[in-house]
Amino acid sequence: MRSVPWWVLLSSACAPVLLVGGWTISAVLQGPGYDPASATISILAADGAHGYWVMTSALLGLGVCHVVTACGLRPAARAGRLALGGGGVTAMLLALFPAPSSGGSLDHGTVVAVGFCLLALWPVLAVRRGSGPLAQGGAAAPWGLRPGPSLVAAGLMWLGGAWFLLALFVHDTAGAAERVVTFEQSFWPLMVAVSCARGTGGEERPV
Predict the structure, then answer these.
(1) Which has the closest alpha carbon to 59: 27, 95, 105, 109?
(2) First to last CA, the chain
(3) What is this structure's pTM?
(4) pLDDT per residue over 125-134, tens digit each?
């Protein structure tokens, strides 16, 4: 029997599709003057952007997907589910605190930073206690909730965040870095959900 309901698989699969689809369509609407390698995603959702409604809708949908996934991902530890849901809420808050068309925004930057930290921490916070190749009681723990894969996933996200900061202030590749790290963060919930759905054994309980 699956340890996660079907709608968790659906919500986690929709998250990266909405994100990538949103920035792709918005970039087309923005026109040839927009360089996705150097310009951030926030510009696409900024006030006055040609495709702001597409990117804003995508961020809202992404946030909803994360919240729904967190609600149904019961094999994960509670702290990890709360962090994932909190990351989803911050994605939705970006619609209330969009980036200005020019210059920076403390409110927008704060929401982005909080959201990144929550989504970069949730993989390790979601690890089940005593979950190695075999969890307590002899049942195999889903690989997405084991310490090894979770640490690797979180480490890649933090490395991506460091690359983004370096690209933002030193190199001119902030857009590429942001796309890599945000895709990582939107894709990992799907990997965890799939690993839980493929898991076998007895009834799963939240930790």
Answers:
(1) 95
(2) 19
(3) 0.88
(4) 999 875 555 4
